[in-house]
Amino acid sequence: MKFGIVIFPSKSMQDKANSFRKRYDPHYALIPPHITLKAPFDAAEEKAKEIAQELDNIVSEIKPFTLKVEKVSSFAPVNKVIYFKVEKTSELEALNEKLHTGYFEQEREYVFVPHITLGQEMSDAEHSDVLGQLRMMEFHHEQIVDRLHLLYQLEDESWTVYETFQLGKDC
Amino acid sequence: MKFGIVIFPSKSMQDKANSFRKRYDPHYALIPPHITLKAPFDAAEEKAKEIAQELDNIVSEIKPFTLKVEKVSSFAPVNKVIYFKVEKTSELEALNEKLHTGYFEQEREYVFVPHITLGQEMSDAEHSDVLGQLRMMEFHHEQIVDRLHLLYQLEDESWTVYETFQLGKDC
């Protein structure tokens, strides 16, 4: 089945993101607002505990960090995805790196740009229109991130949390 | 904000439940299929870590157990809720009891009947019709439960997982 690894930002950030996702993101009902650390990957259901163990080793060495969101951006023209841009910290980079090498070897389709998706699968006109509006709004969000989540996908494409992992237990 | 404590059954059970929930449960998109151990309760966001600590103490003393589902039932006439009936084990009873006393003091609205909701908020006619059909089907599901989840609710009434707790660490 498919697994994924994400950070859920705080409730206030999720509420803010959902106010846009509700209208502009067809994945709105499938998963709460999130920062993807590792794109969905295939593994047998029985591997869940092993994956969790490996993940535990990784997160224990990375300290909780401050997550900052200051603006809305888009991956256009490559992808018409509108998102909250998340400041790239050394912790996010380290997590992303460790989740694509060694046990978690996986080729990245894109360079890692940490983000919270707000809208996707829009027409060209809607994308420009929404992006224009959101770019003019001011956002300042700052919070501590102290955990991440291992998820698996159900048949209907929605995601369920398998386990949470707290950062920095061995720091 | 509102917190809740649930068990997510295995992927196969969730897929089965969702095949019905999709049609019959308006809460389908708000939360994956689950067994509620403690009804939603109010607490400040800052209390999350404290709640997690208390929960950690409780689950460490209760061993993983076998969850069995054998039939579909309904809470009618009290509530027109159709559900997978989950066999009441001593572990489920102990969890429910500990989550309604001491730190987690909360008055129960109903007697604890562990279940996975499949349909609700239906008309009388639809309820009878769906229940009649599902009662005739055979279900046999058995799995080990080794974890539970603390969730919080967003403004749009959907739920996000705050933390997972593994049963029986101190057993």
Summarize the structure.
The structure is a homodimer of 171-residue chains. Chain A has helices at 11-24, 48-59, 90-98, 124-136; strands at residues 2-7, 35-42, 65-74, 82-86, 115-119, 141-145, 147-153, 159-166.
Largest sheet of chain A: 4 strands, antiparallel
Q: Taking all residues together, what is the mean pLDDT of chain A?
A: 96
Termini separation of chain A comes to 33 Å
Largest interface: A-B, 24 and 24 residues
Q: State the total count of DSSP E strands of chain A.
A: 8
Classify the helix fraction of chain A into a percent range: 25-40%
Shape of chain A: globular
Q: List the uncertain runs of chain A.
A: none
How many H/I helices of chain A? Answer: 4
Spatial strand order of the main sheet of chain A: 2-1-7-8
Say what oligomer this is.
homodimer
Strand content of chain A: 25-35%
Which value, in Å, is the CA radius of gyration of chain A? 16 Å
Structural class of chain A: alpha+beta
Order of helices and strands of chain A: EHEHEEHEHEEE
Describe this protein's structure.
The structure is a homodimer of 171-residue chains. By secondary structure, chain A is of the alpha+beta class. Chain A is built from four helices and eight strands. Chain A has helices at 11-24, 48-59, 90-98, 124-136; strands spanning 2-7, 35-42, 65-74, 82-86, 115-119, 141-145, 147-153, 159-166. In chain A, the strands form two sheets. Chain A has a four-stranded antiparallel β-sheet, with helices on one face. In chain A, a hairpin with a 5-residue loop joins β7 (147-153) and β8. The radius of gyration of chain A is 16 Å and the shape is globular. The mean pLDDT of chain A is 96. Chains A and B meet through α1, β7 and β8 of A and α1, β7 and β8 of B.
